[in-house]
Amino acid sequence: MHDVAALERVLLALPDIGLRVDWVRSELASLEVDAAAALLNGLCEAAERGEPRAREALLAVAIFFAGLGECELVEHLREQACGRRLLSLDRLLRRPVSLSPSQRPALQPPVPDYGAGRELTLGERRSLARRPNRRVFEKLSSDPHPLVVRQLLENPRLTEDDVVRMAARRPARAELLHEIARFPRWLTRNRVRMTLLFNPGTPLCIGMPLLAVCTRTELLEILDSADTAPVLRATAHELIERRPPLREPEIPTDRMN
């Protein structure tokens, strides 16, 4: 597929964000990297111009890349964006030259004390994360093993407020944030996306795609935050400049005389 309009039609015809993200994954795997780069850049350009269908379709693309993290596909797309001056794609996948201190890996925390008088095995902790017992959710969200956190994020008793607290935790744990980013059901929530963007420890491979689907108001909030990473701040400025100008409110004709 090489047509942005066709891409929008297919994505918006799918009823569920999970299906849309899966389709993006499949479609990009089937395309040559130069064609994929041009298609993604065209969609990003349309979204930056404020086209509603493009912005809605871009959400699935942004969630896909936020959950994907650093990989060979992303690196190849960055090379295409740089070599062919695909500026909108560059804004979607941009990375800093060096990591700020808040984005460097934090020390792995110990296994929480679950009150059993001993350290629970990984299997026992995963079993706890499957149960509807909310009393242990806070400890489970602090568990150092990604499989425990992943099991917790799948728990139907987990709420948006729970995930927001996990995403806001500082110092940030990259493994925890990567697990949150792999769940489209949570990244469709504005509060979760914005909490990740406001956390200075969120890896840029998660933050940059999510920035692309921010509204003008959300971009301004990110610029106002003292904790915003420099590359996010610079890109937010660029995205605001690309947005269509706000219309002046119309003056009723009876007030013009």
Beta-strand residue fraction: under 5%
* Tally of individual helices: 16
What is the structural class?
mainly alpha
Helix fraction, binned, reads 55-70%
Tell me the major beta sheet. Answer: none
Mean pLDDT: 90
The whole-angstrom Rg is 20 Å
What do you see in this structure?
With 257 residues, the protein is mostly helical. The chain has two domains: 1-96 and 185-244, no CATH class; 107-170, no CATH class. Helix content is 61%, strand content 0%. The chain is built from 16 helices and no strands. α1 (4-13) crosses α4, α2 (17-30) packs across α4 (52-68) and α5 runs antiparallel to α6 (87-93). It is globular.
Keywords:
61% helix, mainly alpha, 257 residues
Task: Summarize this structure briefly.
The protein contains 16 helices and no strands.
